[in-house]
Amino acid sequence: MLIFIICIGELGISMKKSIIAFYKFVDIKDPNVLKLDLKNFLKETSILGTIVLSKEGINGMCSSDKLEIESFKDFLFKKPLFSDLEIKESFYFEAPFKKMSVKTKDEIVPIGDQEVKPRIKVGKYVEPEKWDEFISNDDVVVIDTRNNFEVELGSFEGSVNPKTKSFREFPLWWRKNKNKFHGKKIAMFCTGGIRCEKSTSYLINNGVKDVFHLKGGILNYFEKQSVNKKNKWKGECFVFDQRVSLTPQLMAGSFELCFGCRNPINEKDKANDFYEPGVSCPKCHNTKPEKKILGLRERQKQIYLKFRREKKKVMSL
To answer: Fewest C-beta atoms under 10 Å: which of 41, 48, 118, 136?
Structure first.
C-alpha cells in the first residue's frame, strides 16, 4: 500500500500542467503567415489554449506539460519578433483549456480605436512592490479597466469600476467621466497588463499627461507581493480559463462558471433558490426561453447518468 501511494504522488507531480501567458505589441506584417507557422508547430504537440494574432501583435495563453511548454517557448524566442517576449508561467494540476485555437483578428485586445498604438506610447509602469503605496496618494485615481463581472470577484480597495460589459466600452465611459478626474494622476490596472497598455495609450492620445499602470497586471502583483490583509487587493481575480478565478496565492479560487450564462458563481450563488446546476443561476434565472432550459436540463441529466455509470465501473473493480 505504501508503494502504491508513492507512485500516485509521483504521477501527480508528472501530471502537473505548466500554464503560460504572453503578449507583445509588435508590427506583424502578415499575421496569417505566422498563424500557419504556429499551427504547424502546435499540431505536433498536445498544447492547448488560445493565441490571437493581428498586425498589432500577439496575445496568448497555453498549457501542457513542462517539456512541451519549454519547447514552445524556444520556438517563440527564436523568432526575431519575439526574442524578448515576456512570458508568465504558473502551474496547475489540471489542463485549464479544452482545445488549441490560433486566431487572427483586427486587434489582439479590442478597444475599437485604430489610433491607439501601445508599441509607440503607453503610460508609466508602476512595479507591483510599489503599487499599494502609489495608489494610496490623494492625487491618484485608480481605475479598474476590466469588465464589470470581473470586478465583482475582487479589485483594489477604492478603485473606480467603469461597469463596462466589454473593453470596447472603455473609451465611451472615459469621455463621459473624464471631467471627474481633472488634475489627478490616473493609475489603471487589469488582469495581465495588456488592456492597460491600450487604455493608457488611449488616454495619452486624448491629452492626459499623468497616466500610470500596474506592470504585469494583477497576476504579476500576486506573484511579486506577499498579499495579506494589509494590502489594497480584496477578493479573487477572474481568469479566462477553466480555473475561473485565482486567489492572491495564485491557487484556483472559489468560483466556477454557470453553464447557462457563463458568469462566475460562488457557494452563496449556488445556495440561492434560483440556482439550478447546469441550467441557471441568480444572474440568469428566467432570462432564457423554455426550449433552451429544457435542452440544458437534458444535458445535465446526461452528465449525471454518465457519472453514475463511471462510478459503477470503479466500484466493480
So the answer is: 136
3-class DSSP state of 10: helix
The set of residues, in sequence order, having a beta carbon less than 8 Å from that of 297 and lying 6+ positions away, is 276, 278, 279
Q: In terms of residue numbers, what domain contains 84?
A: 14-104
With bands split at pLDDT 50, 70 and 90, how would you rate the model's confidence at 242? confident
Q: What is this structure's pTM?
A: 0.83
Quick: pLDDT tens for 252-299.
899 998 988 888 998 899 899 999 988 999 989 888 898 888 888 888
Q: Which residues fall within 8 angstroms of residue 266, CB to CB, at 6 or more apart?
A: 254, 255, 256
Q: In this structure, are residues 154 and 253 in contact, taking their beta carbons and an 8 Å threshold?
A: no
d(CA 154, CA 149): 10
> How far is it, in rounded angstroms, from Cα 38 to Cα 32?
10
Domain C-terminal end among 51, 71, 104: 104
**CA gap 303, 279 in Å, rounded:** 12
Phi then psi dihedrals of residue 18, to 5 deg: -90, 130
Structural domain contains residue 7: no
Active site residue 196: no
> For residue 67, what are the contacts with CB-CB under 8 A and spacing of at least 6?
none
Active-site option among 62, 190, 258, 281: 190
The count of domains in the chain is 3
**CATH number of the domain that residue 39 is part of:** 3.30.70.100
How is residue 56 written as a grid cell? Answer: 498589432
209/262 same-domain check: no
Please give the backbone phi and psi of residue 245, each rounded to the nearest 5 degrees, phi first. Answer: -145, 155
**In a domain? residue 202:** yes
- Phi first, then psi: what are they for 301, rounded to 5°? -65, -40
Regarding whether 202 and 293 lie in a shared domain, the answer is: no
Q: Using CA atoms, how far apart are residues 182 and 36, in angstroms rounded to an integer?
A: 47
* Whether residues 173 and 265 fall in one domain: no
